[in-house]
Amino acid sequence: MTDHKQLIQSLLPICEQASQAIMAVYENDDFSIQHKQDDSPVTAADMAAHRVIKQGLDALTPSLPQLSEEDASIPFDKRKQWDSFWCIDPLDGTKEFIQRNDEFTINIALIKDHRPILGIIYVPVTKTAYWGSTDLGAWKQVNNRPAAQIRSRPLTQELIIAASRRHGQEANEDLLKSIHHHFNKVKNRGIGSSLKMCLIAEGIADFYPRLFPTSEWDTAAAQAIVEAAGGRLVDTNNLRPLTYNQKESLINPYFYVCGDPQFPLEEITLSR
Prior knowledge:
alpha+beta, Fructose-1,6-Bisphosphatase, Chain A, domain 1, D-Maltodextrin-Binding Protein, domain 2, 2 domains, 7-stranded mixed sheet, 3-stranded antiparallel sheet
C-alpha cells in the first residue's frame, strides 16, 4: 500500500474501465438523469463508474475504506476512525457531461492522516491521466503513450486564471481587482471539473480561485497532483492546505489554487 508507483500502475486500469463505463453512457441518448437532495444531477454514468471503481479498489486494497460521492452517507462517527481511505468522485463534472462538452473526469485520491498523499485524475474523452504523490512527483499520460513529468510554472507578467464555467464569476471578479496591478495582462480560461487544477499542475494556468461550494471528493485528487507539481491548494481563510475527513460536513471551505508558491495570496486575503 505504501508503494506509490505500484498503486498508480494498479489505479490506471481501474480508471480505464470506469472510463469505458462512462463513455458507454455518453455515447447514448439516454443519460437517465436524476437529482439528489441538493438538486445536483446524477446520471447512469456516475453510478456505473462508481461500481467499477468500488469493485477495483475492493480488490486492490480490501482493508482500506472508501468515501465516494455516490456513497457518502457514512456517519462521521465511523469515518473519524479512519487513518487512511480512498476519496473518490466517479464522475466529476456531471453538468459538463450532460452538456456534452467533454470536460469531465474521474478523481481518486488516497488520504492519510487527513492529507491527500496520492491522486489520479482521468479524462475519459481524451484518455488522459494525471497523477501525483508525495513520493513520485506529478505526471501526465495521454492515451497510453509514455508518461511525462509535469511541473507548475513560476509567475510571469501574464496571469492565466483557470475559471469555472458555471460558478462564482462575480466573486472572482471582485477578488481579482486586488491583484491586477501585479500583472501586465490577465486572461481567463474557462474549463469544467477538476481539469482547472490539472492545467495549473502542468503549467498552462497560474491561478484558480474557488469561491463557491465544493465537496472533498472534488479536490482531494487534484490537491495531491498540484502539490506534487510544486503548487498549492489552500483554504482562503488561513492559507493552509485543505484537510479531509475532519468534520461531519464534507463541504470544503473556499480555496485558492496557485502554481507558483510565491503567488501573492496574503495580499488577496487582506483585501477580502
